[in-house]
C-alpha cells in the first residue's frame, strides 16, 4: 500500500483576526483569503492537531483543498525556506528584467546631513560616454525584445544635468516608445516646476520620487538650511505635476521626528497630495548615530501617521504587500548602474567611489560576471519568520553584520491589509 502523504500549514501564513472576520495572508504567494466561522474552526483544528494534516483531509475537505490550492497548506516535507531562496536566486539571475540606473551627474544642489554619498563631484556625463551608453542600451533592448526594461535617473541630483537627460532620452526615444520602457526619476524637488515638467515630458518619465526629511523645520535643517526652503520646493513640485505621472513622497524620519508627527501632518495639510501621491514613511539610515529609529518605533509611527491622515484627508493606506525577491534592483544580474564617467557599479551606494567600480562602459564590453552579488542576510529568527519574503533580512550591503534588519511589516502587517 502506498504511503499516505502528509501536509502542514505554510510557515509564511499570517492570521489576521478582526472583530468581523479572520483573514489569512501568505507572504510568499501573496494569497489572501477570508475565513468564515466553519473555515476558521477548521483552520484552528489544523493548528492544534500537531501541524500534520492527512492526505484524506486535503483531498476530501473543501476548506483544506482550497487552502492547499493557494499554498496555505503544503507538503509536510517541503522546505519552504529553501524553496524561497531558490526562487530568489533564479529571479535575480534571470534575464527577463533589465534595469539601467543612470547618474548623469554626481553634482548636487543640497547638503543633506544624512547623505551616504561621500563625494559630490561636479562631473557631468560627456558626449562620448553618452554615445557608448545609448548604443549599449539599444543593443540590449533589441536583443531582448520581449523582456522588461526600466530606466532610473539618479545622482547626485539628476535634474542638474537635464541637457544630458534630454540627449540620452531623445536618442532612445524610438525604443522607449516601442518597448514601453518605464522611466523613474529620483529628485530632491529643487528644480523649478516648469523645467521639471519639461523633463518629465521629454524624458517620458512615468513615475517620479521625491523625498523630505520630516516636517518643514526638520527637512530644511537637514538639507542645507532654512534659506533653501527644501520642504516648500518639494511640495510645490509635487502639486505641479500632471496626474498622468505616478508620484511618490518618501518621508525619512529619525528619533527627533517621533514626537513631531502632528507638526508634519499640519505642514502637509495645505497641499493636494492625498488622492494621487503614494506616501511612504522610511527611517533615516545612519551608519553610526544614536538618532536611528528602531524598526518597532518605525512600525508604530507608520500606524499612527496613516491612521491620522486617513481620518483627516481620506488617504487610503490599504494594500497587499508583495514578496520582493531582492531587497533592491541592485541584486538583479542585469541591473546596470552607471556614473557620469561610464563606470559600472554593483551597488547604488558605491556610485561616488570609482575605486569600487567593476568596469567602464567606454573601455570594454559589459561583463556582468564581474558584478558583486548581494544575497539576503538572514539569521535563525528569519527562518521562522512568517513575513520574511517581504523583507529578505534587509539591505545585505549597507553594513557588515550577522543579524538581519527586520521590516516594519513584522509588527504592523495587519494594519495595512
Basic shape: globular
Main sheet strand line-up:
12-11-10-9-8-7-13-14-15
What multimeric state do the chains show?
single chain
C-alpha-based Rg, rounded: 24 Å
Helix content bin? 25-40%
Strand content: 15-25%
Distance between the termini: 45 Å
Low-confidence stretches: none
Mean pLDDT reading = 86
The largest β sheet comes out as:
9 strands, mixed
The sequence of SSEs as H and E is EEEEHEHHEHEHEHEHEHHEHEHEEEH
Secondary structural class: alpha/beta
H/I helix tally: 12
Secondary structure: number of strands: 15
Structure overview:
- The protein has 417 residues and is of the alpha/beta class.
- Helix content is 33%, strand content 17%.
- It is built from twelve helices and 15 strands.
- It has helices at residues 37-47, 55-60, 62-69, 80-92, 127-143, 162-179, 193-202, 216-222, 230-240, 261-268, 295-313, 409-416, and strands spanning 6-9, 13-17, 22-26, 32-35, 53-54, 73-75, 97-102, 148-153, 182-186, 207-212, 246-253, 277-283, 335-338, 343-345, 359-360.
- The strands form three sheets. Strands 12-11-10-9-8-7-13-14-15 form a nine-stranded mixed sheet. Strands 5-1-6 form a three-stranded antiparallel sheet.
- Helix 11 runs parallel beside helix 12.
- The protein starts with 5 loop residues before the first strand and ends with a helix.
- The relative contact order is 0.12.
- The mean pLDDT is 86.
